[in-house]
Amino acid sequence: MSDIIPIRTALISVSDKTGLEDFARALIAQGARVLSTGGSAKLLREAGLPVTEVSEHTGFPEILEGRVKTLVPQIHGGILGKRHDPGHIAEMTAHGIAPIDLVAVNLYPFETTVARGAGFADCIENIDIGGPAMIRAAAKNHEGVAVLTEPSHYARVLEEMAAQGGTSLATRRALAVAAFARTAAYDAAISTWFAEQLGEAFPPRYAISGERKQALRYGENPHQRAAFYIAGPPRFGVATAAQHQGKELSYNNYNDTDAAFECVAEFTEPTVVIVKHANPCGVAIAASPAAAWERALACDPVSAFGGIVALNRELDEDTAAKIAAIFTEVIIAPQASAEAKALLARKKNLRLLTTGGVPDPAAPGLSFKSLAGGFLLQDRDAGRVGRGDLKIVTKRGPSETEIADMLFAFRVAKHVKSNAIVYAKAGATLGIGAGQMNRLDSARIAAWRGKEAGLDFTGCAVASDAFFPFADGLEAAIAAGASCVIQPGGSIRDDEVIAAADAAGIAMVFTNMRHFRH
């Protein structure tokens, strides 16, 4: 028995009218009868196409301001009836219910209504009821019904109808998968929004959904499968980026590029961040992106090889030429000039991404981390420390220059894996210690890397993402040349650490804000 189902009756009720007229015209040309509602029916009639209103088909008018129009047996019976079940066929015949072979429905625009800041009542009215019911009914009965939930599905169905007179079971199953995913995402958006209205950031049951942007060749390693999904409120970055050249981004590329762009967004001056394995290995501000690149590269030119470069300004030709002088995996920037694009086009393996903007580092949001059997959910670290947040705890207070260096270093430390130590001077990192099991090793490694690069640490600032549990880490920083320290404070040995700072004659401030990043 063939699994090809001809389309004799199609039900169309869509909020997104993209391609609707051409789709309906093709269905009618193939001999299908089209049922429709509201705006969809109006558009098709105005296009001169024969269309039957659902209310005419059911013999029951739309009621309650259109809230009830498809929630009737003539519609759901026509969708859910099994085509090869004699009992179903007999019941449908007895009640005058005609089979519906195709359901093209996309939902009230709830997500976009919320995104534009609509009021509570408006958002409630944009919660679709009949649409999800029809979609789920058609997806459940995919053996006999094709369900289309977005305009991109139209072409596949029309191609099959033209080639074989109907839809195949393989296509109907694929469309059913997409349909259940769509209603799940829709319900997730509604439940998340509703919880927020009640002030519940972390409700008892949290629904997550995402839209696949790219199927990846593999994950962190070749034996792992992977894909990139877009989820949550729009935010400039890898999710909004257009790729202008180069091979596909890998899982690790995405992860590192996101880390680089989020770090560079912390700064308002022209800034360049170089990231390797999700950690900054060079960060600098300067009068121009080209100068910032040179200062960032000086921090650790060895690690910068094969790294990710992020800018918070347009990528110009001069900067592009300097970056292209070493092997670079990805460059990400808000925009890129035509000259920069043309220059980089000669680097076939280098990926150039433009995002259209820079994210607000202080904007609220959520971050997820997977665990075996579950996930952790927390607020994004949008914490910002300013001059007014600093508490001087040493006998010597910092100079204006030292304050600027400390704030710069602490902002970089926020984006370094813990335990994080960052040395900086004059708006550029000198050494970065990341991911060590103890803070002393981070302090030593950061100094070693910077001095190996030939940088002068005399009078620099040092930032720690969390408190110094012992004086030894601070003493290592002092030995490296630091003249001022910024750290959260809060250790039971703070007095010991402060005494070490005073003994060395350096300035130290507490922020009372920690920036662990695991």
Strand and helix layout:
Elements: E1 9-14, H1 20-29, E2 33-36, H2 38-46, E3 52-53, H3 54-58, H4 73-80, H5 86-94, E4 102-106, H6 110-115, H7 120-125, H8 130-140, E5 146-148, H9 154-164, H10 169-197, E6 211-215, E7 227-230, E8 242-245, H11 251-264, E9 271-276, E10 279-285, H12 289-299, H13 301-304, E11 307-311, H14 317-324, E12 328-333, H15 338-344, E13 351-354, E14 366-371, E15 374-379, E16 391-392, H16 400-413, E17 421-425, E18 428-433, H17 439-452, E19 460-464, H18 471-480, E20 482-487, H19 494-504, E21 507-510
Helix pairs in contact: 4-8, 8-10, 12-14, 14-15, 17-18, 18-19
Explained architecture:
The protein is an alpha/beta fold. The protein has three domains: 9-197, Rossmann fold, CATH 3.40.50.1380; 236-354, 3-Layer(aba) Sandwich (Cytidine Deaminase, domain 2), CATH 3.40.140.20; 387-510, AICAR transformylase, duplication domain (Cytidine Deaminase, domain 2, 3-Layer(aba) Sandwich). It contains 19 helices and 21 strands. The protein has a six-stranded mixed sheet, sandwiched between helices. The longest helix is centred in the middle third of the chain and has 29 residues, at 169-197. 42% of the residues are buried.
Could you write a compact summary of the structure shown?
α4 runs parallel beside α8, α14 (317-324) packs parallel to α15 and α17 runs parallel beside α18 (471-480). The protein has a six-stranded mixed β-sheet with strand order 8-13-12-11-9-10, with helices on both faces. The chain has a six-stranded mixed β-sheet with strand order 16-21-20-19-17-18, sandwiched between helices. A five-stranded parallel β-sheet has the order 3-2-1-4-5, sandwiched between helices.
